Amino acid sequence: MRLIVIAVLSLLSCQKWNEMIGKHWSYEKPEEWGASCNTGRLQSPVDIQKTTHANLESVRIDYSDTPLAITNNGHTIQVNAAGAGGITVGETRFNLVQYHFHARSEHAIQGATADMEVHFVHKDAAGNIAVVGVLLRKGESNPLLKAIVENAPKEKGEKTVSTRGNPALLLPPSRGYYTYVGSLTTPDCSEGLKWIVMKMPVEVSEQEIALFRAMYANNARPVQALNNRIILESE
User: Fold this and answer.
1) How many domains does the chain have?
2) How far apart are alpha carbons 146 and 168 in whole angstroms?
3) What is the 3-state secondary structure (H, E, C) of 23-76?
4) Residue 50, beta-bridge partner list
5) Residue 19: pLDDT band by 50, 70, 90 thresholds?
6) How far apart are the first and last CA of the chain?
7) Residue 88 — φ and ψ, nearest 5°?
8) Which has fewest Cβ within 10 Å: 12, 46, 63, 164?
9) d(Cα 217, Cα 132) in Å, to the nearest integer?
């Protein structure tokens, strides 16, 4: 199973996002992250099980080719992607800033996780942030992930490769999704995000998964308690 996840952050700037992921913390001891990570009741990721059908707003995606500026930031492999297009959620436009990866997937459906997950980070004109996450499962090779993991810095630092890549290669064509109120999945785990989890899988190869896991074998936060939150599902 593979998912797309979209989170809308109304309180964070891109600068604050980058500051948070740059702080020293470990996926090996998420219980020590502190702040809302330990005390919040709207935490992400979650295991999506029971849902309620609803008439939800559409999600439109229009990514384009850009040079691959690949960064190892100490927590994940990230591709900086300014100028690569963006998404429109209802009537709100969000431009793509960067995307990065987790292994295993952070979200689950019916208790099952995927091999990896990618998060696409966007920003709108008012400074709100939307994050699109896609769960990746083992199957056929994905040319974009192949280029990224083969060229990613093995240690912290940035590297721009000569090839170009379109982020849409890591997205499924279907736009059906689940949605719930949640949080960032990294410290300080700020709450109030709108997560949208789209319902169609995309495959990546076993070799591509192995190359990423050689750098980050476990950079996924465990699923969090739902705490009576309602998960809506588009028709």
Assistant:
1) 1
2) 14
3) CCCCCCCHHHCCCHHHHCCCCCCCEECCCEEECCCCEEEEECCEEEEEEECCCC
4) none
5) very low
6) 19
7) -125, 120
8) 164
9) 22
Both tokens of 169, joined, read: 């290669």
Query: What residue has token string 């330990």?
Result: 38
Q: Report the alpha-carbon distance of residue 117 to residue 106 in Å, rounded.
A: 7
3-class DSSP state for residue 9?
A: strand
What CATH number does the domain containing 52 carry? 3.10.200.10
pLDDT for residue 23: 55
Residue 177 lies in domain? 4-234
* Placement of tokens 């099952």 in the chain: 112
Q: What is the pTM of this model?
A: 0.86
Task: Give the number of residues written for the chain.
Answer: 235
Provide the angle, in degrees to the nearest 10, between the axes of the packed helices 206-215 and 143-151. 30
DSSP label at residue 107: -
- Collapsing DSSP to helix, strand or coil, 131 comes out as strand
Query: DSSP code of 112?
Result: B
Tell how strand 47-48 and strand 108-109 pair up.
parallel
Task: For residues 156-182, give the mean pLDDT.
Answer: 89
Neighbouring CB atoms inside 10 A of 154's CB total 9
pLDDT in tens, 103-144: 999 999 999 999 999 998 888 898 887 888 899 999 999 999
